[in-house]
Specification:
By secondary structure, the protein is mostly helical. The chain contains six helices and no strands.
Length: 121
């Protein structure tokens, strides 16, 4: 498979992350209000930046390089005021998208790590 652009990995990673979160929260409640809150609490730039920080020590050199390149992508004008959150969030989405397409076993390793933390309790 031809390697995608970092933006394309991020675009896919955003969707994959949201599905992961939604699959998780539907097991926690059937309240539509709580489903929405639990999802939006975890599918946002700040939370995703925190998740990148959380997994940082477990990344390989190649994954660190991928995240570094993603953090250095040009920032859309509307997001420049929050670039300290937006940049690592984008890097996180790139990693999720990359693992989804290139290494689902590695993605599952991190899914297990996410599920086992207080972030997902």
């Amino acid at each position: 498979m031809e390697e995608l652009s970092l933006r394309n990995y991020a675009h896919l990673g955003d969707a994959v992350w949201e599905i992961f979160v939604r699959e998780y929260v539907i097991l926690k409640t059937s309240s539509s209000k709580m489903l929405h809150k639990m999802t939006t609490d975890r599918v946002n730039a700040g939370f995703q930046a925190d998740m990148l920080n959380f997994i940082s020590d477990d990344l390989t050199e190649e994954e660190h390089e991928l995240a570094r390149r993603a953090r250095n992508l040009p920032i859309p004008v509307g997001r420049r005021s929050i670039q300290n959150i937006y940049r690592p969030s984008t890097a996180f989405e790139v990693l999720i998208g990359y693992w989804y397409l290139e290494d689902k076993e590695r993605l599952e390793v991190f899914y297990k790590k996410f599920r086992s933390t207080e972030f997902f309790s």
